[in-house]
Amino acid sequence: MIVLVVGRDASLNEGIVAALEDLGVDWTLQFCADATSALTFAQANKVDVMLCELRPVGMEGTALLDRIRGHHPEAARIMLLDESEESQAMKALGSAHRILNKPLRAEELLEAVESIDELREILSSPELQRSIGRIDKLPPPPKLYLALTRALDDPDVSPASLATLIQQDPAMAAKVLRLCNSAYFSGGRTISDIRTAVIRLGQQILRRMVLATEVFSDSTNSAVDRDAMRQRALLSSQLAARLLAGSSAELASTAALLAEVGMLLPGVQYLNKEGELEGDGPHYAEAGAYLLGMWGLPMPIVEAVASHHQPSRSKARGFWVGGAVHVARALIAKQPIDEEYLRQVSMLDRLPAWQKLADDILDQGQD
Fold it and tell me: Which of 27, 101, 103, 117 is spaced 20 to 30 Å from 326 by Cα?
């Protein structure tokens, strides 16, 4: 594992190396103080993970990450931002898979790199990694969704702060107001400001809506019906949230929303209008999971997306997120259910009730 770190503050390097050694890490860390030396190193060596500050000597950090991607498209790209640069997070996510705090802490670096390692263990197919690596332009991370998630990690975040984030994207702000003024949410009262809309919708619905809008707004695969995919995703998300309890319900809801995201990528197998697989290359589920893992989404969501078409492959014991996503997607898309899997996890007797839930959600979705 070769980790390239590019930044002006070389005084921290020895401390990071020592801390990682104390944690039992045996990576090769290469520190470069400027963009030129970083590019020289990347041209001559394999790079697995690249960390870069916003403005290293010689080049903007986003431009440097894009150059490194040209040499090593499979490398994970991470931007380092300090508190004064937080307003640049949305822009940085156009080139970086993830963002870490600056000054860099060994524990945060370890967590980020280990999650990338875990992703590559789960999705270790050389064909998959080559296929993703050959794509010139992956869909960018959902910037507003990730910014909302970061904001909501603060228990004291205010509706006004969330509204400020939403207002950075006028198209998204319009969609939030449209949803909030629908009959389901409005209660007969017209909402005209984003702050009130945020309060009315609630955090979970707001996040799901933003995520669905961003992820399905563009596709490099012209054969995919994005509108139909978005509708399946939203309805599957509603159903999956009702199949599990507590925090697992939110994980299942998000995973179901993203289950088909791999079909946005070129060169993968995807579902045609008849629900049959078409195309060559890796299955869209594994390709989508790899993309989500590089974006830094939680590993339970990544694994559930990877295994939703074959739930028995999931490493989770019993009926959990991957199983809920499988059931929700199959019932909403009217595709076969893996009844043998449900029998193995002692949930087959629940299928008739789940089918009724799915029918009710489908009826509501057509209203």
Answer: 117
